[in-house]
Design a protein that fits this description.
heterodimer, A: 9 helices, about 80% helix, B: about 190 residues, mainly alpha, about 0% strand
């Protein structure tokens, strides 16, 4: 789908520009130049967050915490495997994909656990990364209640998936 | 807030590694994070510049204004602080469109442009404005209709029906987006 979309959008915008007699080449250069300061402002906040997230996720402290939550999950009949994906979803996108890959190879991609994990992974974006990227680049230092709203929506998303997926499966 | 989160992640992670004697992992993560960040930047930088270039053509040809007029009535309700016809509405619309069609790498530069133009309206440049937070919530909830990466991973594992997750993902992300926007509203009024 996106294989077709990207060329179509690019070509359409260029043809529309020609039609409206815009100096396309100069406009492109002018716009592309803005990428350099954008990246320059992005780097420090991104570096800070990747450092913190990488130390946290590689410390395996979540596995330790999860071992206490296991009985609760067994009691609620929720597959235990989805917990790491759900917790790490707002922190790291690639981590969730790696876990998903692992779940697919153990249970097969069409099993209930796999579908549930895929829905949790696919129904949200990496909240911390987006906050860092957007607010860090434009120099916002006080993010107010945005992190809470983002994380609450993520939690709500997990609950909705847990309720909805068994129905659709 | 982000300050506390950052400290929490580093302290708990480091502490757990230290009491388990895994100094090697801690050392590796500290020294590697620069390279990981640079790799990520190298991946997104060319695409950001490319989309900003294309975007500027759309802006100069007034195509952006046309698109935003189309979505404006709906956006004005969500972003009451942004004056009608302001350029940020155009960037917000482009970001939404890129997100909906799963053009992940295009949505980032549009999103940052939207934030930059909302920053022009912002009184205190260090504090996030209400519209910025609403826009952020729209992005963190992931309004993607087609989760392309997961579908390709499912194909890789020979799934019988790789795209079967599209519908549940759509429903779940729509519900959580509505919930996110609702609590954003309630919180802003506090």
């Amino acid at each position: 789908m996106s294989n077709l979309f990207i060329p179509l959008i690019v070509i359409f915008i260029i043809i529309y520009g020609v039609f409206k007699k815009v100096n396309i080449y100069d406009s492109f250069i002018e716009g592309a130049k803005e990428g350099i300061p954008m990246i320059k402002n992005m780097f420090p906040s991104l570096l800070a967050m990747i450092l913190a997230v990488n130390i946290f996720k590689n410390s395996e402290i979540i596995d330790f915490v999860f071992s206490f939550l296991k009985p609760l999950f067994l009691f609620l009949k929720i597959p235990f495997e989805v917990l790491p994906i759900a917790i790490m979803r707002p922190l790291s996108g690639s981590f969730g994909l790696a876990l998903l890959n692992n779940i697919y190879s153990i249970y097969g991609p069409d099993s209930f656990v796999s579908v549930l994990s895929s829905v949790i992974q696919g129904s949200s974006d990496t909240t911390i990364y987006i906050i860092t990227l957007y607010f860090g680049t434009i120099g916002i230092r006080k993010i107010r209640y945005s992190l809470w709203v983002g994380l609450l929506a993520d939690l709500f998303m997990v609950i909705v998936s847990l309720i909805l997926v068994p129905f659709l499966f | 807030m982000i300050n506390k989160l950052w400290t929490f992640l580093i302290i708990t992670g480091s502490f757990y590694l230290i009491i388990n004697g895994r100094f090697d992992i801690l050392n590796k993560q500290i020294l590697n994070s620069g390279k990981v960040t640079l790799d990520l930047i190298l991946q997104i930088f060319p695409l950001i510049s490319l989309w900003l270039g294309i975007m500027n053509i759309a802006k100069k040809s007034l195509l952006l204004d046309k698109i935003s007029k189309f979505i404006e009535p709906f956006l004005v309700k969500l972003f009451p602080e942004i004056p009608k016809g302001h350029e940020s509405l155009g960037y917000i619309s482009s970001n939404i469109i890129a997100n909906v069609f799963g053009l992940g790498n295009a949505s980032t530069p549009f999103g940052i442009k939207a934030m930059q133009s909302m920053q022009k309206l912002n009184k205190d440049k260090a504090v996030a404005s209400r519209s910025m937070i609403t826009f952020l919530v729209m992005n963190t909830c992931g309004i993607t209709i087609i989760p392309t990466t997961i579908i390709s991973l499912r194909m890789l594992h020979n799934s019988k029906n790789p795209s079967s997750i599209i519908l549940p993902c759509m429903i779940v992300s729509f519900i959580s987006l509505s919930f996110g926007l609702l609590i954003d509203r309630l919180w802003a009024k506090k």
